[in-house]
Amino acid sequence: MDANSSPKPSAKGLSFIEIMPSIHSVIRQLLRLVDQLEKRYPGRHFTLDGHMVGSLGEVYAKKSYRLDELFTASNKTHDARKGKKLIQIKTTQGDRIAISSEPQYLIVLKLHRDGSFEEIYNGPGQPVWQQTKGHKGLHQ
Question: Is residue 7 part of a domain?
Fold first, then answer.
């Protein structure tokens, strides 16, 4: 990766299930549980979110983008490193993310209900930070 390029996925378009088959059944169980709860309690949302979705996205990104290192969970600003690039990884099941500081690079992933991931953004963090400063989150 040269100084001006974004990390590129090594397995573009593959689902999390294909990247990480060892936890495929657990992810499917979680998503089935969400579906069951939402059917049982109409009008309630049981979206997987928070640390779980973030960690799933970070593990997916490490494998998919061949990142060199994942930092400890809840590290300030950056979640990973590839070469000399520091990368923040954000994962959502909705239509927005929140960032609290300017990352060097930013990868935004969307986790779909079938367990697949979609790359929403992959590039320098500065333009996104400038767009979202003072806002609660970023619409994708």
Answer: no
